[in-house]
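Schema walkthrough. Field components (list of strings):
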Amino acid sequence: MRMLAAVTGAVVLALAAWPAAAEVAPARQAKLKDMVAQDCGSCHGMTRQGGLGSPLRQEDLAKLSAEAVIETILEGRPGTPMPPWKAMLSREEAAWIAAYLMGELK
Amino acid sequence: MKRLAATVLGLGLGLGLLSACQPVLRGTGDLGLVVERADGRLMVVENSTSTKLASVSGLGDLSHAALVYSRDQRFAYVFGRDGGLTKVDILSGAIAGRVMQSGNSIGGAISQDGSLVAVANYTPGGIKVFDAATLEQVADIPAIGADGKASKVIGIADLSGRRFIYSLYDAGEIWIADLTDPKAPRLTKHTNIGKLPYDALITGDGRWYLAGLFGEDGIALLDLWNPDKGVKRILDHYGKGKEALPVYKMPHLRGWAVAGDEVWLPAIGHHQVLVVDKGKWTEKARVDVAGQPVFAMARPDGKQVWVNFALPDYSKVQVIDTQTKTVIKTLEPGLAILHMEFTAKGERVWLSARDSDKVVVYDTETLAPVAELPAVKPSGIFFTSRAGKTGL
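Field assembly_structure (string):
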C-alpha cells in the first residue's frame, strides 16, 4: 500500500516535470547540465555540496517547491551573490534545471 | 669507480631503461601545475617546452581548487573544495600526503618560513593549520564573529613571521592569526569592516591587505606596517553601485593586480577595470572592457594587464596597456577561459580554456598563440615561481 502511494507520487512528480522538460531540446539540455556542473559549480561545488553558495544536493532542495527553485534561478537572491539568471535562461530552462537538481530528471 | 660506471651507464642509456630507478636530476623552476577540475587531477607542465610531463590523480573535488608551493618549489599543497589538503611531489608526479581536513574549503596559504600551511574553510568555517612537512594538524581556529556565529573564511594570505591574515565572509571581520607558538595561536581581530568580504589580496610587499565587499560598496584596507591604525574604508564608489547588476561570477583578488604604483581591480558587475593609486588609494581611471571581469592580472613587468570575464563573455580575453590605459587587443583563445598565469618573467602567459578542453600559451609581446596542450576541463594554472611571493 505504501509502495503504491510512493509510485503514484513519483508518477505525479514525473508528470509535473514533463512539460517543462519537453520544451528544452536535447542539445540544450546537455548544455544546461554542463552549466550546472561547471558554472553553478563555481559557487555551489561541482558535486553540489556547497561553497560560497548553499548546497544543492537533492536532499538540500527537498524542503523547497519546484516553483521556489525556479524563482531563485531566474530572480536570484537579493543580498547574496546569487544573481538572477533570467538574462541567460528562459523559464522553461530554469524549470528543467530545477527538475534536474531535484532529482526528477536524469 | 662505482659512480663512474653508473655515469657511463647513465650516459649510454640516456632516458631509457635506467630512468625509472635513476631519474635524471632536474630543478623545478621551469615547472607548474594545471588543475583538471572535473577529474580531480593535476597536470605537471614545463614552461620552456609547453608540454605536460606527468599527471597526478586522486585529488578529490577540485572545483575552485587553489594551491601554494613549498619554498623549495618541489611540493604543492592543493586545497580541494571537498576539504581535502593534498601534498603533491611535482618531481615524481606522486601524492606525498593527503588529509581530509574539513567539509568544504576555499583556499590556503603557506607561512613565510615555509613551515606551516593554513587552510581557509567554508564548512565548518575557520582555519586549520598544518605542519608543511608532515601534514600533521597543529592548530584549529574557528571563526566565530562578534555576532556569535560561525563564519566562512576567505582571502587568506601569509604575513611576515608565522602569521596569516584572512576575512570572515558572514561576520565582516579581518583576523590575523599569529602561530609563533602553534599551540597557543594569538588572534588580532578587526570587526565591522563591511558587509560580506568575498575575496581579498595582499600586495607583494606584504604591506597592504584589501578585502572586496559584496554586501556594500567600497574596499576594506589594512596597512600592515601600521596595523594600529585599523581598517580603513577606501573607494566608496567601488562595488555594484546604484544599479546593482547581476554578478555572474565573483571577481578574484590577488597580489598579481599590482602594476608599478597602481592596483588594477575588476569592477563588480560592471564591464570595467578600475585603476587605483597604490598608497593614496584613490581611483585614477576606469577602463571599459568586454564583460564582467573575473581576473585582472598584471604581466610581471607591469606593462600589461590581462583580463578575463564571467559568462556570457568568458571566451574573450583583453590585454590592456597600463601606460595608455587602453585595450590593445581582444583575444579569443578558446571557450570559457577560467584562468591565466604568466611565466616568471612574463614572456608568455598560459590560459585555460575549459570548454575547449585545452590550455593555450600566448607570447605576450606578439600577443599571438604559440602552443596548445590538451587538458580535460582545465581551471587554475600555477607556476612554481609563486613559491617566492607573498600572498600567492
